[in-house]
Write the structure tokens for this entry.
Amino acid sequence: MSGSDRPSVLVAAIGNPDRGDDAVGPAVASRLRDSLPARVRILDRGGDVLALIEAWDGFSDVFVVDAAAPIGRPGRIHRLDLAGPAVLDGFARNSTHAFGVGEAVELARSLNRLPRHIVAYLVEGEQFDLGAPLSPAVAAAVEIVVRRIRRELALLSSQRRKEGGAEHA
Amino acid sequence: MATRTLKVDYIARVEGESLLDLHIRDGVVDAVRLGIFEPPRFFEALLRGRGCGEVLDIVARICGICPVAYQMSGVHAIEHVLGIAVDPAIRALRRLLYCGEWIESHGLHIVMLHAPDFLGYPDAVAMARDHRDAVERGLALKKAGNELLRLLGGREIHPVNVRIGGFYRVPRRAEFAPVVESLKRARDLAIETLRWTATFPFPDITRDYEFVALRHPDEYPMNAGHIVSSAGLDITPAEYESEFLERQVPYSTALHSVLKRRGTYLVGPMARYALNRDRLPPEVRALADAAGLDPVCRNPFRSILVRAVEIIYACDEALRLIADYEPPARPFVAAEPRTGIGYACTEAPRGILYHRYRLAGDGTIEDSRLVPPTAQNQGVIEEDIRQVATASLDLDQDALQAKCEQSIRNHDPCISCAAHFLQLRVDRT
């Protein structure tokens, strides 16, 4: 693969497929795999989230899909622009066992290793039981997240083409 | 009566959930309780009724940081029952797998959990803004260790490739090529990490530990050896329960281990180094000397140096093992199940990990005992805190808390393993 053919977009799906609504990330990844342009790579990440910092090296555009803790409305979708100001604080004082996406993002920001465009889609879960399927509200959110990421990918493609054109003009 | 109480409800930068209760009466520390409140995980009971072939995948789930340790103690204990003697190449691959775990576990602890204490940062994210190179080194060390785990274990976390009698699949020589380059770089990064940690300000404290570690005739210990101590203990793993006792304490979901005859003892890098320094290659000893590490280190705050030395050694040893590697004729040897009791003790990054299994004739697990390093170190951690707090009573609450928490992190406790751990409560009267 030549340098120009290298995938430039990473979709990082976080979660354990066997822990109820924690599987929302893998479920979105599975649906996206059906039809994706060659410039998009999907990454399933169940355990070592800290390794995201290496995983997104070289990608200009990154989408992170993860389950969020229940805060009232299972299936509600939150879109966060992680390249903006820090949205989390005080978390890296936890153990490395509990090192999550937020910690990886903030550590990458401290190290100047955060992609220039990184967006998180977070879906509020309802239950995270061992072996349980997605709860209905979260399952319904999967298709919506897939549609929104596809729409963003199309917009990004158009935007990057314009940027490329401007650079070559 | 003057009472001062320090309560830390959740100890940060340790693996798992724990609290600390410190009670000070009339200027004297009269109670230190390290409370582990993670729910008991019942792994020993969970194993009952399972086939011995399932054990390694189950015990690997006890810890995401040290799954290899659980697999290694488990596999050796079961092979002890079944009378399996593995091919020397299999033995070498298991030692290589352990090297990977030491590199990633020590690398993460030094940079992500322990170093911020010495440099005055609340966490590694804040430290990374001023010490970017150091944090990058830590991440690279973790990555190098994980590459070994991925190659030999099938994946970095909760590896799946170890089986009774060997491995499900053994690598070809050519598969090591990228790992060799990564390990050579990791060795250089580990030396830089040792030199960096040697510049830290270390509190002046000396502790009179009884060190307990494995000792092997030829090797710095990982998978084999007698259990020895600085007070003259020298036993086989099968004799562990005759010398050591696990007991309940009311404030912790983790059992406390003691030497039946002498009480608390220390396991882990400081103990391994104190009892096995002569098993390290001269060049590694020279690096330790140059970093100011005494042959026997009794200052728990300087344990960070020992971990860095052990990373250097693990890189060297991994490179040696890879250079000597010839794939075995078969990836594993099969054996018929049989009744019996098997014992094993291996050196997890945090210290000795004892396993005992009783098998039925069909290979079903009838009974098991797993004693993780953190359960063994809880007593000395409490004693460390007592000594450090006694010398720090003039400090305000926040500074005292920081000092106490650092005393805990000196030993890199893995609470999840032991609860199978921190809130701090200080009560000053």
In short: Chain A touches chain B through 21 residues (CB under 8 Å). Chain A has a mean pLDDT of 85. The two ends of chain A are 26 Å apart (CA to CA).
